[in-house]
């Protein structure tokens, strides 16, 4: 059950990391520039309506033209997800002392692999989801914040989702998503540990890029 839920949330997290989960506790609308540089709630407030509206208004186009969907997903993912920091978390001990260029190559390859695998699932994403915020708490050592929430689906059990966010480049970005206690970072750290024991980060990145290795949350 947990493994089946994680791919769904990963697909949503590609373009909606923390957008819907914070909407119900967001502050009054701020000017666009302030929203981009402000708190998670301010950032989420401006993004939620735009992203969900885009998914609905362009659903037919995205269904016909997967290239347009890919462009949209890439744009939102790059804006909201701290892929380099997340990549270093996934690499774990294998990333200690690794060159930034190698970590970036791995992060880019992992993100692209995930988007190819799960991006089209966004066409089935329920833009009418309701969300219940459980808590928002600081992470240890000032690493960021954890937003704990539940996704409320019509006719389905609530799905607990936690988003870990940190300040990066002057704005809040997501670096991990946890669904029913199963972490994005931990899942892929376990998956790639054996590969990284036998191969360099560069080789694993190349194989992810080429599709020889598939990132999977199943």
TrEMBL record:
This is ABC transporter substrate-binding protein. InterPro entries: MlaC/ttg2D (IPR008869), Tgt2/MlaC_sf (IPR042245). Keywords: Signal. The lineage of its organism: Bacteria, Pseudomonadati, Pseudomonadota, Gammaproteobacteria, Lysobacterales. It holds the Pfam family MlaC. Coiled coil: none annotated. Residues 1-23 form the signal peptide. PANTHER family: INTERMEMBRANE PHOSPHOLIPID TRANSPORT SYSTEM BINDING PROTEIN MLAC (PTHR36573).
């Amino acid at each position: 059950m947990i493994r089946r839920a994680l791919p769904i949330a990963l697909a949503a997290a590609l373009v909606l990391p923390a957008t819907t989960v914070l909407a119900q506790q967001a502050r009054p609308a701020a000017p666009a520039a302030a929203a981009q540089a402000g708190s998670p709630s301010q950032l989420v407030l401006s993004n939620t309506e735009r992203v969900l509206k885009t998914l609905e208004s362009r659903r037919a186009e995205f269904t016909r033209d997967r290239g347009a969907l890919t462009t949209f997903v890439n744009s939102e993912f790059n804006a909201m997800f701290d892929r380099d920091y997340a990549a270093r978390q996934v690499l774990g001990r294998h990333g200690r002392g690794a060159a930034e260029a190698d970590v970036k190559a791995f992060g880019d390859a992992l993100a692209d692999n995930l988007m190819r695998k799960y991006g089209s699932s966004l066409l089935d994403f329920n833009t009418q989801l309701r969300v219940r915020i459980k808590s928002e708490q600081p992470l240890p050592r000032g690493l960021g914040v954890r937003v704990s929430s539940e996704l409320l689906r019509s006719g389905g059990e609530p799905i607990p989702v936690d988003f870990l966010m940190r300040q990066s480049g002057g704005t809040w970005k997501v670096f991990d998503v946890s669904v029913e206690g199963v972490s994005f970072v931990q899942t892929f750290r376990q998956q790639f540990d054996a590969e990284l024991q036998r191969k360099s980060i560069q080789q694993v990145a190349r194989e992810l890029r080429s599709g020889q290795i598939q990132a999977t949350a199943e």
